[in-house]
Amino acid sequence: MSIRKKPPIFPIINATLLIGISLVMLIPFLNILAGSFSDGQAILKGEVSVFPVQFTFDHYMAVFKNMAIWRAFGITIWVTIAGTALSLLFTSLMGYGLSKSYLKGRSLMMLLIIITMIFPAPLIPSYLVVKSFGLLDSLHALIIPGLISAFNLVIMITFFRGIPKALTDAATIDGCDEFNIFGRIILPLSLPSLTTIGLFYAVSYWNGYMGAIMYLRNPSLFTLQVKLRQLLVENDVGSMDSGMLMSIEGIRMATIIVATVPILFIYPMIQKHFIKGAMLGSIKG
């Protein structure tokens, strides 16, 4: 007589709890999405929940007609792409060097890196440093100060130290120098980890706000997040259609969606590498 096993209770409770929490976290986003497609009067009357009321594209049309939004969107894309590429390059190079136990001064460098994780640089000294290098009112000020994240650097150091030394020794015997070993062996093996920290860097650059507020004065250099702040805080609708001023709340919601959705599309495309990189980091750490 076979004994029928009862289904485990914990996975069911865990899944139900996580789904419930996810739905609760999703409601504000759905509310903003619904409001961006709703009539302005319905928004002002508080009739919009998670479904659009009197469906309309007027708010998006007002946003897309604003050239300042397009300029800020393009600047944000440029900063995100250039910043992420440079950050990955310098983080991987520095991480590979610090993963070598024979490197002189390695312990001191690691100590300084850990200190920056615990005690971040204050705003005023950071501003003075950027000013002393002549980076004020330049897009370089949005990239260079945060070029290497200490947290991401530690992840890469941990990953590089987990690569079998036999691989690099064999390449050295075959006549490869350090740059060839790094480019032909280390980087291809590091793709999952690079994808993981690349996502961290991309989100950081895309959502970058404080740097733009501190270092930029020229409105033509403002990023999308700064433009979004002007809409949310200062009611600055710029060159938007004056007939849409009655639904400024809808314009704000549409701008939030425009600023949020692009970065959301990145994760599904690299989900496979992201999960693999996170698992490798947990195993090798």
UniProtKB/TrEMBL annotation:
Cellular localisation: Cell membrane
One Pfam family matching this protein: BPD_transp_1
ABC transmembrane type-1 domain boundaries: 73-270
Keyword Acetylation on entry: no
Segments passing through the bilayer: 12-34, 68-96, 108-130, 142-160, 181-206, 250-270
Membrane topology: Multi-pass membrane protein
CDD domains, alphabetized: TM_PBP2
Keywords: Cell membrane, Membrane, Transmembrane, Transmembrane helix, Transport
Main location class: membrane
Similarity comment: Belongs to the binding-protein-dependent transport system permease family.
Name of the protein described by the UniProt record: Carbohydrate ABC transporter permease
Organism annotation: Paenibacillus yanchengensis
